[in-house]
TrEMBL record:
The keyword Transcription regulation does not apply. GO terms for biological process: maturation of LSU-rRNA from tricistronic rRNA transcript (SSU-rRNA, 5.8S rRNA, LSU-rRNA); ribosomal large subunit assembly. Residues 1-201 form the Brix domain. Belongs to the RPF2 family. SMART domains: Brix. This is Ribosome production factor 2 homolog. Keywords: Nucleus. The lineage of its organism: Eukaryota, Metazoa, Chordata, Craniata, Vertebrata.
Amino acid sequence: MLIKGGNANLTVTEVLKDIYAVKKPFAVLYKKKNITRPFEDQTSLEFFSKKSDCSLFLFGSHNKKRPNNLIIGRMFDYHVLDMIELGIEKFVSLKDVKNSKCPEGTKPMLIFAGDMFDVNEEYRRLKSLLIDFFRGPSVPNIRLAGLECVLHFTAVDGKIYMRSYKVLLKKSGCKIPRIELEEMGPSLDLVMRRTHLASDDLYKLSLKQPKALKVCTLESMLLPDLSVNQSKSLSINYCISDQSLLLFRPNEISGATALLG
Protein backbone atom coordinates (compact mmCIF):
# COMPACT_ATOMS: atom_id res chain seq x y z
CA MET A 1 0.00 0.00 0.00
CA LEU A 2 1.19 3.49 -0.87
CA ILE A 3 0.13 6.33 1.44
CA LYS A 4 0.52 10.07 0.95
CA GLY A 5 1.28 12.15 4.04
CA GLY A 6 -0.58 15.31 5.00
CA ASN A 7 2.16 17.58 3.69
CA ALA A 8 3.37 15.63 0.65
CA ASN A 9 4.67 17.86 -2.15
CA LEU A 10 4.57 17.32 -5.92
CA THR A 11 7.85 15.33 -6.01
CA VAL A 12 6.71 12.85 -3.36
CA THR A 13 3.30 12.51 -5.00
CA GLU A 14 4.88 11.74 -8.39
CA VAL A 15 7.22 9.18 -6.81
CA LEU A 16 4.28 7.36 -5.20
CA LYS A 17 2.39 7.37 -8.52
CA ASP A 18 5.38 5.94 -10.41
CA ILE A 19 6.04 3.22 -7.82
CA TYR A 20 2.34 2.36 -7.99
CA ALA A 21 2.62 2.10 -11.78
CA VAL A 22 5.51 -0.34 -11.38
CA LYS A 23 3.59 -2.40 -8.79
CA LYS A 24 0.16 -2.48 -10.47
CA PRO A 25 -2.06 -4.45 -10.10
CA PHE A 26 -0.51 -5.75 -6.86
CA ALA A 27 -0.74 -2.47 -4.93
CA VAL A 28 -3.19 0.01 -3.41
CA LEU A 29 -2.65 3.77 -3.74
CA TYR A 30 -4.39 6.06 -1.24
CA LYS A 31 -4.73 9.41 -2.98
CA LYS A 32 -6.08 11.41 -0.04
CA LYS A 33 -3.57 13.01 2.31
CA ASN A 34 -3.20 11.33 5.72
CA ILE A 35 -1.80 13.37 8.59
CA THR A 36 0.36 10.92 10.49
CA ARG A 37 3.98 10.46 11.63
CA PRO A 38 4.91 6.78 11.40
CA PHE A 39 7.97 7.04 13.67
CA GLU A 40 5.90 8.67 16.44
CA ASP A 41 2.50 6.99 15.98
CA GLN A 42 1.95 3.81 13.98
CA THR A 43 -1.78 3.33 14.58
CA SER A 44 -2.76 4.83 11.22
CA LEU A 45 -0.45 2.50 9.31
CA GLU A 46 -1.80 -0.49 11.23
CA PHE A 47 -5.36 0.63 10.43
CA PHE A 48 -4.61 0.85 6.71
CA SER A 49 -2.83 -2.51 6.87
CA LYS A 50 -5.95 -4.20 8.21
CA LYS A 51 -8.24 -2.26 5.86
CA SER A 52 -6.37 -3.25 2.70
CA ASP A 53 -4.91 -6.53 4.03
CA CYS A 54 -1.40 -5.37 3.08
CA SER A 55 1.80 -6.19 4.93
CA LEU A 56 4.07 -3.78 3.00
CA PHE A 57 3.80 -0.01 2.81
CA LEU A 58 5.45 3.08 1.33
CA PHE A 59 4.67 6.41 3.03
CA GLY A 60 5.57 9.74 1.44
CA SER A 61 5.85 13.11 3.18
CA HIS A 62 7.67 16.45 3.03
CA ASN A 63 8.70 19.05 5.59
CA LYS A 64 11.51 21.50 6.21
CA LYS A 65 13.47 19.15 8.48
CA ARG A 66 13.09 16.08 6.25
CA PRO A 67 12.29 17.16 2.67
CA ASN A 68 11.13 14.70 0.01
CA ASN A 69 10.78 11.86 2.48
CA LEU A 70 9.88 8.19 1.93
CA ILE A 71 9.32 5.54 4.59
CA ILE A 72 9.31 1.92 3.43
CA GLY A 73 8.26 -0.77 5.87
CA ARG A 74 6.48 -4.04 6.50
CA MET A 75 4.02 -5.45 9.01
CA PHE A 76 3.89 -8.59 11.10
CA ASP A 77 0.49 -9.55 12.47
CA TYR A 78 -0.73 -6.05 11.46
CA HIS A 79 1.94 -4.36 13.57
CA VAL A 80 4.97 -2.50 12.21
CA LEU A 81 8.00 -4.80 12.02
CA ASP A 82 10.60 -2.75 10.12
CA MET A 83 10.68 0.83 8.86
CA ILE A 84 13.45 2.64 6.99
CA GLU A 85 13.32 6.32 6.11
CA LEU A 86 14.81 7.44 2.79
CA GLY A 87 15.38 10.94 1.48
CA ILE A 88 14.88 11.67 -2.23
CA GLU A 89 17.83 13.65 -3.63
CA LYS A 90 17.06 13.18 -7.33
CA PHE A 91 14.05 11.85 -9.18
CA VAL A 92 13.34 11.10 -12.85
CA SER A 93 9.75 10.04 -13.48
CA LEU A 94 8.32 7.53 -15.92
CA LYS A 95 6.90 10.28 -18.13
CA ASP A 96 10.29 12.03 -18.36
CA VAL A 97 11.83 8.97 -20.05
CA LYS A 98 10.30 8.63 -23.51
CA ASN A 99 11.26 5.00 -24.09
CA SER A 100 8.69 2.19 -24.20
CA LYS A 101 7.47 0.72 -20.90
CA CYS A 102 6.82 -2.79 -19.64
CA PRO A 103 3.24 -4.15 -19.55
CA GLU A 104 1.28 -3.88 -16.32
CA GLY A 105 1.89 -6.72 -13.90
CA THR A 106 5.36 -7.60 -15.22
CA LYS A 107 7.42 -9.43 -12.60
CA PRO A 108 10.77 -7.60 -12.25
CA MET A 109 14.26 -9.01 -11.90
CA LEU A 110 16.02 -7.47 -8.89
CA ILE A 111 19.76 -6.74 -8.88
CA PHE A 112 21.69 -5.41 -5.87
CA ALA A 113 25.21 -3.99 -6.15
CA GLY A 114 27.44 -2.74 -3.34
CA ASP A 115 29.16 -4.29 -0.32
CA MET A 116 26.94 -2.36 2.09
CA PHE A 117 24.03 -4.67 1.30
CA ASP A 118 26.09 -7.53 2.78
CA VAL A 119 28.14 -6.01 5.62
CA ASN A 120 25.80 -3.43 7.18
CA GLU A 121 22.73 -4.61 9.13
CA GLU A 122 20.57 -1.61 8.19
CA TYR A 123 21.38 -2.05 4.51
CA ARG A 124 20.73 -5.80 4.79
CA ARG A 125 17.26 -5.07 6.16
CA LEU A 126 16.71 -2.50 3.42
CA LYS A 127 17.64 -5.08 0.80
CA SER A 128 15.20 -7.54 2.35
CA LEU A 129 12.50 -4.86 2.40
CA LEU A 130 13.06 -3.98 -1.25
CA ILE A 131 12.91 -7.63 -2.28
CA ASP A 132 9.63 -8.15 -0.42
CA PHE A 133 8.20 -4.92 -1.82
CA PHE A 134 9.04 -5.38 -5.51
CA ARG A 135 9.28 -9.12 -6.17
CA GLY A 136 5.56 -9.68 -6.77
CA PRO A 137 3.70 -13.01 -6.51
CA SER A 138 5.49 -16.35 -6.65
CA VAL A 139 5.18 -18.15 -9.99
CA PRO A 140 5.91 -21.82 -10.83
CA ASN A 141 7.39 -21.14 -14.29
CA ILE A 142 9.10 -18.28 -16.09
CA ARG A 143 9.38 -17.80 -19.85
CA LEU A 144 12.26 -15.90 -21.43
CA ALA A 145 9.99 -13.35 -23.13
CA GLY A 146 8.45 -12.54 -19.75
CA LEU A 147 11.77 -11.30 -18.34
CA GLU A 148 11.18 -7.72 -19.43
CA CYS A 149 11.85 -5.54 -16.37
CA VAL A 150 15.02 -5.00 -14.31
CA LEU A 151 15.20 -3.01 -11.07
CA HIS A 152 18.81 -2.24 -10.16
CA PHE A 153 19.79 -0.99 -6.68
CA THR A 154 23.32 0.27 -5.99
CA ALA A 155 24.65 1.23 -2.55
CA VAL A 156 27.79 3.38 -2.66
CA ASP A 157 29.15 6.38 -0.73
CA GLY A 158 26.20 6.43 1.66
CA LYS A 159 23.57 6.62 -1.10
CA ILE A 160 21.17 4.19 -2.74
CA TYR A 161 20.58 4.47 -6.48
CA MET A 162 17.48 2.87 -8.00
CA ARG A 163 17.33 2.43 -11.77
CA SER A 164 14.65 0.77 -13.92
CA TYR A 165 15.36 -0.90 -17.25
CA LYS A 166 13.44 -2.69 -19.95
CA VAL A 167 15.05 -5.84 -21.33
CA LEU A 168 15.35 -5.92 -25.10
CA LEU A 169 15.93 -9.25 -26.86
CA LYS A 170 17.93 -8.66 -30.04
CA LYS A 171 18.87 -11.04 -32.82
CA SER A 172 22.29 -12.55 -32.28
CA GLY A 173 22.61 -15.02 -35.16
CA CYS A 174 22.28 -17.99 -32.80
CA LYS A 175 19.62 -19.58 -30.59
CA ILE A 176 20.34 -17.35 -27.57
CA PRO A 177 19.29 -13.73 -28.15
CA ARG A 178 21.51 -10.74 -27.42
CA ILE A 179 20.40 -8.80 -24.35
CA GLU A 180 20.25 -5.01 -24.16
CA LEU A 181 18.95 -2.80 -21.32
CA GLU A 182 17.00 0.37 -22.04
CA GLU A 183 16.30 2.81 -19.20
CA MET A 184 12.56 3.43 -18.77
CA GLY A 185 12.19 5.09 -15.35
CA PRO A 186 11.50 5.78 -12.59
CA SER A 187 14.99 6.70 -11.39
CA LEU A 188 15.75 7.61 -7.76
CA ASP A 189 18.82 8.78 -5.85
CA LEU A 190 18.16 8.09 -2.16
CA VAL A 191 19.91 8.60 1.16
CA MET A 192 19.12 6.63 4.31
CA ARG A 193 17.77 8.58 7.30
CA ARG A 194 16.04 7.09 10.36
CA THR A 195 15.45 3.36 10.92
CA HIS A 196 13.11 1.30 13.08
CA LEU A 197 14.23 -2.33 13.00
CA ALA A 198 12.71 -5.31 14.76
CA SER A 199 14.80 -7.27 17.24
CA ASP A 200 16.55 -10.40 15.97
CA ASP A 201 14.15 -12.68 17.88
CA LEU A 202 11.04 -10.96 16.52
CA TYR A 203 12.52 -10.89 13.02
CA LYS A 204 13.20 -14.66 13.14
CA LEU A 205 9.67 -15.25 14.46
CA SER A 206 8.19 -13.33 11.52
CA LEU A 207 10.04 -15.61 9.07
CA LYS A 208 8.46 -18.80 10.39
CA GLN A 209 5.89 -20.37 8.11
CA PRO A 210 2.76 -21.90 9.71
CA LYS A 211 2.49 -25.65 9.25
CA ALA A 212 -1.01 -25.23 7.80
CA LEU A 213 0.48 -23.36 4.81
CA LYS A 214 2.96 -26.07 3.91
CA VAL A 215 1.90 -28.14 0.91
CA CYS A 216 1.23 -31.81 1.70
CA THR A 217 2.77 -34.14 -0.85
CA LEU A 218 2.04 -37.81 -1.40
CA GLU A 219 5.55 -38.81 -0.34
CA SER A 220 5.30 -36.93 2.98
CA MET A 221 2.02 -38.69 3.88
CA LEU A 222 3.23 -42.25 3.15
CA LEU A 223 4.33 -44.17 6.24
CA PRO A 224 6.93 -46.88 5.53
CA ASP A 225 6.47 -50.34 7.11
CA LEU A 226 9.68 -52.39 6.93
CA SER A 227 9.47 -56.19 7.15
CA VAL A 228 11.57 -59.27 6.24
CA ASN A 229 9.86 -62.05 4.26
CA GLN A 230 10.64 -65.79 4.23
CA SER A 231 13.35 -65.41 1.60
CA LYS A 232 15.18 -63.04 3.99
CA SER A 233 14.78 -60.10 1.60
CA LEU A 234 13.72 -56.69 2.85
CA SER A 235 10.32 -55.39 1.72
CA ILE A 236 8.82 -51.96 2.34
CA ASN A 237 5.06 -51.42 2.51
CA TYR A 238 3.54 -47.94 2.51
CA CYS A 239 0.40 -47.18 4.51
CA ILE A 240 -1.75 -44.13 4.07
CA SER A 241 -4.84 -43.07 6.00
CA ASP A 242 -8.19 -42.04 4.51
CA GLN A 243 -7.87 -38.68 6.27
CA SER A 244 -4.58 -37.99 4.47
CA LEU A 245 -6.21 -38.60 1.09
CA LEU A 246 -8.52 -35.66 1.70
CA LEU A 247 -5.52 -33.32 1.66
CA PHE A 248 -4.43 -34.31 -1.85
CA ARG A 249 -5.35 -32.52 -5.03
CA PRO A 250 -7.72 -34.42 -7.34
CA ASN A 251 -4.96 -35.25 -9.81
CA GLU A 252 -2.95 -36.90 -7.01
CA ILE A 253 -5.73 -39.32 -5.98
CA SER A 254 -5.15 -41.60 -9.00
CA GLY A 255 -1.47 -41.90 -8.09
CA ALA A 256 -2.35 -42.74 -4.51
CA THR A 257 -4.84 -45.39 -5.68
CA ALA A 258 -2.16 -46.97 -7.87
CA LEU A 259 0.25 -47.19 -4.97
CA LEU A 260 -2.42 -48.60 -2.64
CA GLY A 261 -3.61 -51.11 -5.22
